[in-house]
Amino acid sequence: MARHDLPAAPFDDLITAFVQDQTVTRYRDWDEVDGYCVNSANPVGRLVLMLCGYRDEERFRLSDATCTALQLANFWQDVMVDLDKGRIYLPLELFARHGYTVEELTARRCTPAFRAVMRDAVERAQGLFEAGLPLVRTLTGDWRWTSICSSAAACESSKRSARRIMMCSATVPRSRGANGSGCSPDRCGAWH
């Protein structure tokens, strides 16, 4: 830390997120999910910027949007993986808004209500990707291209996963084996 003049706060935030992963299993609303991302994702972007010589608040703000979007995209790709660990990162307010329940998610029911929950969640991540995009114009050299490529790839991956989820019918499979649910693994590749 001293060698690169890095503050302790981002590292403390990452430890806070690690503890939260062990203790928090549900998030009521977007404020709580965003609060998790402030500790889990945003410090990584800020540290990378600092290591590249950027330390201004505007770049940090844009990086935070991008990093939160990346974290959300990861959550939406791993809904079932996280569920199997007892965690749900989808805000429960979305469930209530669309008439979906934790019990339905646990039963792997991919209903129109669930698709609406996922559509809202993916749109939120997409909006954050777009909000963070101006960061790219402020970077130079290889970091600019790395930022463009990683953001674009993550955004597209998130959209592909969402499309696969939206195609599901009946029940989301627990495994890649046949389950007779009408939701084949190749149609729901993000759900494993």
Which secondary-structure class do the elements indicate?
Answer: mainly alpha
Report the radius of gyration as a whole number of Å.
18 Å
Give the overall form. Answer: globular
Helix content: 55-70%
Unreliable residue runs: 169-192
Overall CATH class: Mainly Alpha
Proportion of residues in β-strands: under 5%
The CATH topology label is Farnesyl Diphosphate Synthase
What is the topology?
Layout: H1 9-23, H2 30-40, H3 42-51, H4 57-77, H5 79-84, H6 92-98, H7 102-106, H8 112-132, H9 135-138, H10 141-167
Question: How would you sum up this structure, described in words?
Answer:
- With 192 residues, the chain is mainly alpha-helical.
- The protein has a single domain (9-167), classed as Farnesyl Diphosphate Synthase, CATH 1.10.600.10.
- It has 10 helices and no strands.
- It is globular and about 50 Å long.
- It starts with 8 loop residues before the first helix and ends in a 25-residue tail after the last helix.
- The model is unreliable at 169-192 (pLDDT under 50).
Keywords:
globular; Farnesyl Diphosphate Synthase; disordered C terminus; 192 residues; single chain; mainly alpha
Compact description:
By secondary structure, the protein is mainly α.
